[in-house]
Design goal:
The protein is α/β, with parallel strands linked by helices and about 140 residues long. The protein is about 45% helix and about 15% strand. The protein is built from six helices and four strands. The protein has a four-stranded parallel β-sheet with strand order 3-2-1-4, with helices on both faces. The longest helix has 12 residues, at about 45-55.
Amino acid sequence: MVGELLERAEATPNQAPPHAAARTDGDESGGSRMSIFITGGTGYLGSYVVTRLVEVHDARCLLMVRAKTRKDAIAKLWSGLQMHMDAARFRRALDKIEFVEGDLTAPRLGMSEADRKRVADGADSCCTSRHHSIARAKKRA
């Protein structure tokens, strides 16, 4: 299952989904889709948030991940979401997720200038799962 997902990721360039190009395209109801920048979405608590956003609220997620390739980002996300959904639901969810390479512990969030602009211009809201930062700080202490 994971192998198939990763093969499909390799075949798909790391680009925004079709609906990401223009936030004003709107959804089926005629309104515009909410875009949310998320950190910690591949972790335990964040995976619940991402699942709920893509399945119930139909939000477009700009998901920050510590991954250098789309394939690695998908593998990391699948690791967190597989307890919430099967592979078919995960593939559908990927249509609503745009990966942003970054690291909360790095200067300027470890994001390229292009990604910083994409998030600043494209996100309506921000959601951070703080548990991952707290857990890491406790581990270092």
